[in-house]
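Consider this today:
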Amino acid sequence: MNPCGISIWHFPKDDETDKVKSNTEPKSWLEGFDTASRNALSIIVACATAGILIGVITTSGLSTKFTRIVIEFSDTIESSLPAFMITDNTQIYIALVLTVFACLLLGLGLPTTATYVVLAAVIAPVLTN
C-alpha cells in the first residue's frame, strides 16, 4: 500500500486500551486534512518558485556561464599561488570554496527544500565538470 493509503486507513489507537480513539469521526479527519494542506502550502509555493528560478537560469544559459566563471576564476587563483601550494587538485578545492559562497548567496531567500533543488541544478555542474 502506498503512503497516502496508509495515512488514510491508519486509525489512531489509545495506548492503554488498544482501542480506536473516539476522535476518528469525519469532522476531525476533515480538520486534519485542512491543517495538513495549509501547512504544505508554503513548501509548495517555495518549490514552485524554485522551479521557475531553475527554468529561468537554464533558459538564459546562466548555469553554463556560472560554471565557466567559477572554473576560470579558480584557474586564475591557482596560477597566482606559489608553486609549493599547488597540487593536482588545487583548482577543485578553490572551485569548492567558490561554490560555498555561491550556495550561501543563492540560499538566502529560499527554504531548505527549494534551496536544495536550485543548488542541484546550478552548482552541481560546476563540481562535476
Remarks:
- The helical segments are 3-9, 26-60, 62-80, 90-106, 112-122, 124-128.
- The radius of gyration is 24 Å.
- The mean pLDDT is 78.
- The CA atoms of residues 78 and 91 lie 6 Å apart.
